[in-house]
Amino acid sequence: MSIQPKTVMALTAVMTGAAFLAYCLYFDRKRRQEQDFKKKRLTKKASKTGTDGMQVLNLQDTIAVRNFVYGEFDKGRELLTKGHMEEGLHHLATAIALCGEQEHLLKMLEQSMPPLLYNLLVQKIPEIKQKMLNGKNVGAVNP
């Protein structure tokens, strides 16, 4: 009685997968059983977030700032289309406050937004900039 090569390969693949899974589980359990595991995890998590749990934006990282601005702009547009005016204007004002080309973006928005919304947006931008200067979290909406 001979064993077919396909069967041998399938058994080898299953055994290799099981061995790898056992290896991962063993070292994960070993890592979690360390005495300072929770302490390390909490300090690492605290260093990534601000005091209120929101992500801290590194203004020196241009890619992170650009992604944040695009994200805030998209959130603002989406909220405005859903009818959430205050939240949408807050996100748009945050994006404009961090944007390098504010005048160009404001001109574009002036042409595409109703005058009432545009005026509210322009009034909200200095408020957001002041919060940034004071070091407050601008991610939270305070209607």
From TrEMBL:
Predominant cellular place of this UniProt entry's protein: mitochondrion
The answer, when asked if Ribonucleoprotein is one of the entry's keywords, is no
Transmembrane ranges, per UniProt, are: 6-26
Q: Where in the cell is it found?
A: Mitochondrion outer membrane
Q: Which Pfam families match?
A: MAS20
Does the keyword Protein transport feature in the UniProt annotation?
Answer: yes
Topology relative to the lipid bilayer, per the entry, is: Single-pass membrane protein
Q: Which UniProt keywords apply?
A: Membrane, Mitochondrion, Mitochondrion outer membrane, Protein transport, Transmembrane, Transmembrane helix, Transport
Top-rank taxon = Eukaryota
Q: Give GO terms: molecular function aspect only.
A: mitochondrion targeting sequence binding; protein transmembrane transporter activity
Q: Name one GO cellular component term.
A: mitochondrial outer membrane translocase complex
Task: Describe the family membership recorded for this protein in Swiss-Prot or TrEMBL.
Answer: Belongs to the Tom20 family.
In Swiss-Prot or TrEMBL terms, this protein is called: Mitochondrial import receptor subunit TOM20 homolog
